[in-house]
Design a protein that fits this description.
By secondary structure, the protein is an all-alpha fold. The protein is built from eleven helices and two strands, in the order H-H-H-H-H-H-E-E-H-H-H-H-H. A two-stranded antiparallel sheet has the order 1-2. Keywords: Membrane, Transmembrane, Transmembrane helix.
Length: 307
């Protein structure tokens, strides 16, 4: 079996019965459908889906209490219209990143180490097709979770918070009409999703080199902790040692982009417009995704992995 798997990985595909080949598009659709079903067989996917309303309720309770100590005139004050954004700010770094780490570890590391991927490779699929099918299935699943989270956040916002005709946003020089919050919220969620996908590229690279699921989870959590610590250490060193390095370098951390960078990218403050911070952070995301995805794909598709 190992020899057949290696041959399949080297040749990319093997003949179907009758000596004919299925079209690449048909193969990819079938493989993507299979990977989608495999993700939904994971308990973690269903647990998170069921937990979304509970997470939203817990977040609502937190911001209800937070409103008692925050004046209505500040950007931290939660209203019905800005609650979806506030709810994403609160849960993005921990909940969505950790969910992505667990799903990718189960999809790449566990399935490879348990031999499940070798069985898939005995069919008419190349390792490259398998890699991209897993990535696309994961991306689609996370997009679905973001949409469901947004819908529940919108409902909870109007259920638990007062509506306001004007919104005060982070890094804005003026108030925003509540009607404009729809577009702002969609843009915020879109950028939040992009940062999760950028972080996921790091997790995939970790997953394909890890010897076990435990190691992949541990290394992934270690990366998140380092990413969280980097801006604090950087700013402290810059201030204490008087290095004079530009503050924009703290956005080399993906979690810092998630924490404050998205709001900065969407800002209309005149003081920030000339710094081109949005372009800088988008470039950072692209570099992370390109480098780590390329490395992960190269390692994953090496023929000697399947021998």
């Amino acid at each position: 079996m190992a020899g057949d798997a290696g041959a399949v990985a080297a040749n990319g595909r093997q003949p179907q019965s009758g000596g004919s080949f299925c079209g690449d598009d048909d193969l990819m659709i079938a493989l993507l459908h299979s990977e989608w079903e495999r993700l939904w067989k994971r308990k973690i996917a269903w647990i998170f889906l069921i937990a979304i309303p509970l997470i939203i309720l817990a977040t609502s309770k937190y911001y209800i209490g937070h409103n008692l100590v925050v004046p209505p005139g500040g950007p931290e004050h939660t209203t019905a219209e800005n609650f979806p954004v506030m709810a994403m700010i609160e849960q993005l770094i921990v909940v969505f990143n950790v969910l992505g780490l667990v799903l990718l570890t189960l999809s790449f590391t566990e399935e490879y180490r348990s031999g499940q991927l070798r069985m898939i490779m005995l069919r008419s699929y190349s390792s490259t097709q398998l890699f991209w099918a897993k990535w696309i299935a994961f991306a689609l699943l996370m997009a679905l979770f973001f949409i469901i989270y947004l819908l529940f956040a919108v409902m909870a916002g109007y259920a638990f918070f007062k509506s306001s005709p004007q919104q005060i946003l982070f890094y804005y020089d003026h108030t925003v009409p509540s009607g404009d919050m729809i577009l702002y919220t969609l843009r915020y969620y879109g950028m939040a999703y992009a940062t999760v996908m950028g972080t996921a590229s790091v997790f995939i690279a970790i997953g394909v080199i890890s010897r076990s699921s435990t190691a992949a989870i541990g290394l992934g959590m270690g990366y998140l902790l380092c990413s969280l610590a980097f801006p604090l250490i950087y700013e402290m060193s810059n201030r204490v040692l008087g290095l004079g390095l530009p503050g924009v370098l703290k956005y080399l951390s993906l979690t810092e982009i998630q924490f404050s960078g998205i709001a900065v990218m969407l800002s209309n403050a005149k003081a920030l417009q000339g710094l081109h911070l949005g372009l800088w952070m988008i470039c950072i995301l692209v570099v992370y995704a390109a480098v780590f995805m390329a490395a992960a794909r190269l390692i994953f598709t090496k023929s000697d992995r399947w021998i």
